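Database export, one record per block. Field names are fixed; values are copied verbatim from the stored entry.
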Amino acid sequence: MRLNGTTKFMVVNHLVESVAEAMTIRAFQEEDCFFDKNLNLVDTNASQYFHNFATTEWLIQRIEILGAIVLAAVVLCIVMLPRGTFSSGFIGYALTLSMAMVFSILDTPPVLQGISYTFEGGDKIDIVGRTGSGKTTLIGALFRLVEPVGGNNIVDGVDIGFIGLHDLRSHLGIIPQDLTLFNGSVRFNLDPLCQDNDEKIWDVMTLLNT
């Protein structure tokens, strides 16, 4: 992803420069040179998709092989046991757990390591970094989209790792990059859970307009 982002930036940058300096390029009759350079940059960017696809296929094959080995071992152990030793529900749980163990072994290492930060109320924070540096993972950690393996996230004096997901996510808000409107009225989009009355919604809209 990092290589793709870097090479794609080069394509976009070259395109913007070519459009901005189109008259100069035509004046010096360098159209073919810029066209060939654009094709080379596009080829370089497209090659990252090939490597990504090849790596994904490599990983899928090994996951399937490892999963088949673990599942076969569990099934063999179950078959060797005397009839009636375990219930069918317990056997199904054991098979499901064996597959979950395979994927837990293949988890990638943590992205956010050794990070300490403090955001005061009212601060406006910009998080910048290259592709894959952990910007999205930081947001995911705040909403516990992925459970942390260590450390503490404290919001308003409360460690969010020890409260329920409903309590956590109902008190946090996020503005996505892409604007989306769901089917229904404007009021439904502003308050899809119907937790506030019309007067409070009007107050918020008035505050936003000012």
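Remark 1: The chain has a mean pLDDT of 80.
Remark 2: Residues 31-80 form the longest helix (50 residues).
End of record.
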